[in-house]
Amino acid sequence: MPTRITQAPNISSTLFGVFCLGSYLLSLSYGSTFLLSLLMVSRGGNEHDAGSVISAAMLSTFVAVIYSGHLSDRFGAARSIALCAGLLVVSTLGFALVPGYGNGLLCFGLTLGLGWGVFYTLGPIIVAMLVEPLQRARYFALLSGSMMTGIGSGPLLGRLATALGYPVTTAFYIAALASALGAIIFWRLAVRLQAQPNQMGAAAVSRISIASAIAVLSSRAVFPIIMVGLGGCVFGGLSSFQTSYAAMRTLDYSLFFLGFMGAAISGRLLIASIVVKRDPYIASCVLSGLMVVSILMFQYLVGDGASYLLAAIVLGVGYGLTYSVINGLAANEAPTGLTSQALLLFSLSYFVGVFGFPLLAGKIIVEQGMTVLLYTLLAVAVINWLITVARQAWRVRGATGSGALGR
C-alpha cells in the first residue's frame, strides 16, 4: 500500500511522486530554450534572433492557455497534457535539426508555446483538484520544484555536452526524448488521477469565459496575477541571455544555472513548506525584495565565479519562493468557483513575461548592451516589490480602521 501524504486525504505519495516525475521530464523542453542564444550565435545569429524565437511562443501560449480549460473538460487534464506533450517533442527536435537561425525556427517556437502552455497551465489545476485549499501552496511548491529541476537540467545538459565534446544540440535531443517519456507517464496517470476526489467540486469546470476572467481580475487575485507576469520578465530576461552575460564577463554560464536552479529547487522542495505557513503577504514582500537585491548584484558586484554564483543563489531563493507563495494566493483569493480560471490567468500572465520579454531583452542587448538590460530588469523588479509593499500598507490601514483595500 502506498503511503499517504500528510493532510492530503486520498492522495498517495507514490501517485504524486510519479506526477512530479512526469512534470520534470516535460520541463526539460522549456529548459533547453535557454540554450537558444548560444545556438543562434554558433550559427551566425545573435541574441535578437533568439529572443524572436522565444517570443514566438508567447503568441501560441495565448491559444494554449485559453483553450487548455476546454481540453481539460473534454479529455481530462492529464490526457490533455499527454497529447500536447507531443508538441514539445516536435519543437525540441526542430530546434536541433533545422539549420541556420532564420524564420524557419519561429514555427517551432510557436509549437513549443502550445505544448508548454497546456502543460504549465493544467499542472497546477490538477494539484488544485487533488489537494485541499489549506495545503495547496505546499503542493504547488512541490510541483514547481519538480518543474524547476527539469528547467534547470536543460542548460546544464548543454554545458555537459559541450564539455564532453558533443554539440549543444545534444541537449535538445535529450529534451525531446524526455518529453516523449513524460507524455507516456501522464497518459497512464489519467485514470488514477480522475479517480481522486475533486477538491474544487465535482461540478467544477476549467474553461474560461470573458465573464469569469472579468470576475477574477476584479478580485484580489489580480495582484498575484500581475506579479507573476513581472517576475516572469525578470526570470525570462536573465535566464534566456545568461550565456551572453557570462561570455561578456568571461564567466561560466553553468554557474548561474547551478546556483539559481539549486536555490530555487531546494527552496521550493525544502523551505517552501515553512514559508507557506507564514503570512503570505509579508513573505512575498521579503522574497520579491531579494529579487531586487539579486539584480543589483548582477549589475555591480559580479566579478568572479564566487560572486556570480552568490547572485544566482539570491535570485533563486527570491524568485523561486515568491512564485510558490503567489501561486497559492492566486488560487485562494479567486472568487468562489473560479479557482481554475484564476490559475489559467496566472499562467497566461507568466507566459506574457517569460516568453514576451525576451524579444525586448534581445533587442536591448544588441542595440544598447547588457547594462541597459539589467537596468530595465531592475525597474521591473522594483515595481513588482512595490506591489507587495502597497498591499501590506493597505492591510495595515485596514487593521487600524482606515479601510481594507488590497487585502
Features:
407 residues; mainly alpha; Growth Hormone, Chain: A; 79% helix; globular; disordered N terminus; disordered C terminus
- Give the radius of gyration: 20 Å
CATH topology: Growth Hormone, Chain: A
Coarse morphology: globular
Number of strands: 0
**Stretches with pLDDT under 50, minimum 5 residues:** 1-9, 402-407
SSE string: HHHHHHHHHHHHHHH
Strand content: under 5%
Structural class: mainly alpha
Mean pLDDT: 84
Annotated CATH homologous superfamily: MFS general substrate transporter like domains
Produce the secondary structure layout:
Layout: H1 13-31, H2 36-42, H3 47-75, H4 77-97, H5 106-130, H6 136-163, H7 169-194, H8 210-217, H9 222-240, H10 242-248, H11 253-275, H12 280-300, H13 305-332, H14 339-368, H15 370-399
Helix pairs in contact: 1-5, 1-6, 1-7, 2-3, 3-4, 3-5, 3-14, 4-5, 4-7, 5-6, 5-14, 6-7, 6-11, 6-13, 9-13, 9-14, 9-15, 11-13, 12-13, 12-15, 13-14, 14-15
